[in-house]
Amino acid sequence: MRPRLIALVSGFGWHVEDLQRASRLVDVQLDALPFPSVVGRVRSGHARIEAGGIDLTHADGILVRMMPPGTLEQVVFRMDALHRLGALGVPVLNPARAVEVAVDKYLALAQLEAAGLPVPETWTGESAEEALAAFDELGRDVVIKPIFGSEGRGLLRVSDRELARRAFSTLERLGSVLYVQKMVRHPGYDLRVFVLGGRVLGVIRRHAPEGDWRTNIAVGGRAEAFSLERDIEELALQAATAVGAPLAGVDLLPDLDRGGLVVVEVNAVPGWRALAQATGVDVASEILTYLKGCKR
Length: 296
Hints:
The protein is of the alpha+beta class. The chain has helices spanning 14-26, 72-87, 96-103, 105-114, 128-137, 161-173, 230-243, 273-279, 283-293, and strands spanning 4-9, 29-34, 38-43, 46-51, 54-55, 61-64, 92-93, 122-125, 142-145, 156-158, 178-182, 189-196, 199-207, 222-225, 247-254, 261-267.
């Protein structure tokens, strides 16, 4: 009987289609189910997690493909469901704790720093006044980021003090956490390293579009295959381990001022379209093969 794997998704675009293609190659049954369809059932002596009418507690593996936006209650419940599935012995990729850490930029950065890895200097808090003081301390060239967010969206580079003051005041009024990071002077590209199960599947160099400083593919960055070097491999694997993510997209940035690479982020639900196209690696098949081999 073929192993039954479940992908929890927020939509049915290219990545889901690629996983379905790969499922036929690696001989698994794959069901893609919307994350909001997850249901928890509890009664004395019995706990069950379902999605789309399917009992996930009997699945051979769960792939967290994407965590869709939602209210605090919705996101917390989804994480609760992942924790419960893990506690019941169902292999979950990535584990709930890794998703929680990676989605929170401050927590992820703190764990990377605690592991002794190089990270950009960052200030996080809720006070606009204190954020402005941090802006001065960080050299008056910073990137303001949403503490939850991905794909380069919502980023604002600020090097003008009055603009910084206005941005911080607006965010404070909105009840946002202020995440202020010293701008890393880089050569116009970063490296995305795709890690799976303690090895690197591939590396791409992402070039920022002309006139922009962001390298993310989602905002127009250009990807090309990049040779794996020992220092890149070691740093990426250490970063993935620091956040507890067997599956990770690790973003490394060459720091022209300090020299070497800094770890900017670790994505626990990484996309792979650009990497697969640039390197020829069948990432979807690798992911399903790895999950298929995980034991309850």
